[in-house]
Amino acid sequence: MPALRFAPSAALALGLLAASSAFAADNTPDGPVKDAYAATVKTLAASGEPPWRPPHRDKLMSKGLAALFARDDLYQDEAGEIGHVGADPFLNGQDGEVKNLKVTVTEKPANGRALVSAAFRSFKQPVTVRFRMVEEGGGWRIDDIVNRFEGKDYSVRDELSKPYDCGSFMNKPCKR
């Protein structure tokens, strides 16, 4: 019988350890970005969802950015069209790979905000993606993703905030 008493204690300890490690990345601004790229690498290997979709979205992103991505997903489902972000914002392209990833806090945390950059090589080309981070819900979250294309910065949050032609969230059904 002592073994039975130990088993629940061990299971509880393992559960608490797993839960604490799942949220450990939230303690630093670069943690959610590292977790997002771990999900991206799995997605590229065809074994998982991208960071902007469940189950990652709510853990990695601010409530506001997560809601914008959810709205974009809903539009895509209802309209059968590409949403406002037609490429993978973590790759800064429609296709890619993540080689030699380096995630760096480029603006130290101040007033609950920070800036993090992810630099890597994709198809032998250097890529840098910037992340505006915010402290929310007891940890750090991605609040915006900034990509650079043809010398111009593009805020994913700004793109996702644009109006849609239709959608249940606009009380205007989409015609498929």
UniProtKB/TrEMBL annotation:
InterPro entries: DUF3828
UniProt KW Signal keyword: yes
Pfam name, any one: DUF3828
Domain of life: Bacteria
Keyword Ribosomal protein included in the entry's annotation: no
DUF3828 domain segment(s): 32-147
Signal peptide: 1-24
Keywords of the record: Signal
Full protein name: DUF3828 domain-containing protein
